[in-house]
Amino acid sequence: MGVRLAGLVDPASGGAMTTKVRAAIAVAILAVAVVGFVVYVAAFARHRPPSVAVVVGADGTATLTLQTVGTLGHGHHGDWPSYLVQRPDGSWAHATTFQLPANSTVRVKVLEYDTQTGLRNNFFALPQGLVNGEMTIDDGSSSQTVSAVDPSTVAHTWTIPGMGISVPLVGVANNAPNQCTTAPCDESTAHRTIEFVIRTGEKGHYRWQCIVPCAPGGFLFGNGGPMQTVGYMGGYVDVV
Question: To 10 degrees, the CA torsion angle through 223, 224, 229, 233?
């Protein structure tokens, strides 16, 4: 009963040895935490979401097909708006990182299923960086080629600052019948088809973002949530 644990308790030193041991343990724990944090940050910095490659035709022209929805309709963030991309096999992927060939012509088709939110900066009502500066909008009953749109009718944008590209995507009317609520949406539901052509340049990893603050309730001024989350209202274009 009179045995003491050497190195842990030393009455003669007033417990000084115990304090040293505790300090050493605390330093060791802190070191492990710092190393773990550094490893996590490094892994996060190196991580890139997988890219969905576009379809490239026999003439060398690539085709990128996207759809935007007002609510994803499933998963942890089922009430968030989102983009989806069509895989080469025709199926839809809930992904927002796209792989485009460098120095190539790319035909882009966007199926816009969301309703109109409106722009807060009318500058983005002008299509930018498109071949001929124009895009075609088809609402199912008529088609028109435009070089500008009414800012109040925009649902989302596809904006790639590093490539000088920004496209306003006109949404369906807020009272449109037969609206889609669960992605991927079918073309039998209310939508607009928006088509345009871009030219890619040199290889690079470019960030794109929707400029319309379209987050659901609970986010200040429509920002946050899907607006800053890759896989929803933002992503990357890998030019390879």
Answer: -20
